[in-house]
Write a structure and sequence with these properties.
It is a single chain. This protein is mostly helical. The chain has a domain of about 90 residues. Helices cover about 85% and strands about 0% of the residues. Helix 2 packs antiparallel against helix 3, helix 2 packs parallel to helix 4 and helix 3 runs antiparallel to helix 4.
Length: about 130
């Protein structure tokens, strides 16, 4: 696990730096900075819209007496997307924007559910204790 985290936290920033340098070389510094700011602004607006829609869906589910599991997972994915958008760079912006697209979140939710079910079946994840 440590090795994975080390690779993630070293390869992603190196990729971001390389990509920003290459984009800056091709289109120039002012255009590169404008592009980074534009994606951040567009992402912030989209994160706000999707976040508000998710909060409404959580409230609707709770008013029906249901546990808002889909809304909570969507909320977490939107939060991660927002964090990625705040991180400067094109790779993280792209990942953050993808997490704000409802269809992408739906696919990630399905993947997470299957991964969790497999891990629980293998016994690699257990839930112990009281809530």
């Amino acid at each position: 696990m440590f090795l994975r985290l080390l690779l993630i936290f070293s390869l992603i920033p190196l990729g971001e730096i390389a990509l920003i340098i290459e984009v800056g070389r091709r289109i120039g510094l002012p255009a590169t900075l404008a592009l980074v700011l534009l994606t951040a602004a567009a992402g912030a607006a989209l994160a706000r819209r999707e976040g508000l829609a998710t909060v409404r869906s959580i409230g609707d589910a709770m008013s029906r007496g249901e546990v808002p599991t889909v809304g909570l997972v969507d909320g977490a994915l939107i939060l991660i997307g927002g964090i990625l958008l705040v991180t400067p760079g094109f790779l993280t912006d792209a990942a953050g924007l993808l997490l704000l697209v409802p269809g992408v979140r739906r696919r990630i939710r399905r993947w997470l559910r299957r991964a969790l079910e497999r891990a629980m079946a293998r016994g690699t994840i257990t839930f112990v204790g009281r809530w």
